[in-house]
Design brief:
The chain is of the alpha+beta class. The protein has a single domain, classed as NADH Oxidase (3-Layer(aba) Sandwich). It has eight helices and four strands. The longest helix is centred in the middle third of the chain and has 20 residues.
Amino acid sequence: MDVSQALRARRSVRAFTDQVPSADLVQQLMQDAALAASGGNMQPWRVAAITGDALQAMLGDVAQTPGEENPAHLSYPTNLWEPYRTRRFANGEDLYKSIGVPREDKAGRLKQLAKNAQFFGAPVGIIMFTEERMGPVQWMDLGIYLQSFMLRAAEEGLATCAQGFWRRYDTVVKQHIEVPEGYLVTFGIALGYEDKTAPINTMRATRAEFEEWGQLKGF
């Protein structure tokens, strides 16, 4: 699989089989992703993979703890404007449509939302951290690492779902994964093998046409 194939293969998968990737493979993905571009070569990430009993213990504590969003690191701006509001709305509608949950089924939507806190059933959870003192440019580096990890996973036939959701559980996560003081959770990644029988995995996110966001000058 080349890079363009991996880009097309990568998508957010929200149902996984029980098959656990090997520790060697997971470590290789983590190490290869660390070749990502980083301003000043600062490499402002710490990354942990968690599975088995350790993962279940963490998820059990998460289930008993209300999530709390950090106002400084919201997943979306408040009062979202166009075209982003429509894009986000359409993505959510397509997701719930894939599992037959209509807009008026509030309980059904909350049940699906709660699966975020279980890594969607993935057998491996990846947690990324950075120091609280880092700024927006270093968070860009985290995004480059994140994409690099997911592309390598796609190359190996693994499925992923990137989750800003885990920032809500910074305190709980750090009770189960040791990091130096002053670090915070930035992203989670559900990692495993796709359950190809799950209806939710038939959903495909759309992309805006090039003319909507791109331009070429001087060519």
